[in-house]
Amino acid sequence: MEEISKENDPTKTSDFLICSVLLYFDHILEGISRSNTSRCIFIIKRKDNTDEILDKFYRGLLLVEPKRFQAIQKEIKSRLYN
Q: What strand order describes the sheet that includes 11-13?
């Protein structure tokens, strides 16, 4: 039986903070799905280290530079509202 790789599948999340963290660590925001009227879904291209970053995020082990992180959040918000 052939094993299906999830590496090519994008990461999908409605969590703004997770989206911000992944973009901070050089992931690409492929799109934003607005099909649900109550929330949007961020579609992020997976990389080899995606699961490692998310694991470190949930365990509280990531460090970010505040100004760059804030700039990334502003960029995401501009894509959301424009």
A: 11-13, 41-45, 28-33
Tell me the pLDDT of the chain (82 aa) as tens digits: 344 445 678 999 999 999 999 999 999 999 999 887 788 999 999 999 999 999 999 999 999 999 999 999 999 999 998 8
- Which residue in 66, 42, 65, 62 sits closest to 54, CA to CA? 62
Map 7-44 to HEC letters: CCCCEEECCHHHHHHHHHCCCEEEEEECCCCCCCEEEE
The whole-model pTM stands at 0.86
